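Try it yourself: sequence plus zinc ion, in.
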Amino acid sequence: MDAPRNGGIPDMSRSFTRFASDRQLQAVYSVMRLLADDDRQRGTLVDSCVWCAACRRDRAAAGAVTYDGILLCNGCATEYEVLHIAGIVAQPHEFLAQGTVAATAG
Ligand SMILES: [Zn+2]
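Structure, out:
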């Protein structure tokens, strides 16, 4: 498995190709998992919660990512990255507007 080696976190704001390859998807998933693991290992965010702008719930702060001032939980950030590299959404704002993850009842 070829994990990204240049410091771990690729520049995800750069435009990718218009479709996502399996490699790209795997890279996204592994990077997002690393972010969460990293936060948990540091211990500072273990019990913290953040309010996710996408799923509109309190979620674990570990692995949460801020895009352009929009805070997404780890799960939503992963989903955003996947849609982003697939060329389906260009901006976090579009991701929120789509409401793809907000539908879960609860
Ligand atoms: Zn979320």
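One thing you can check immediately is this: The beta strands are 49-51, 58-60, 65-67, 70-72.
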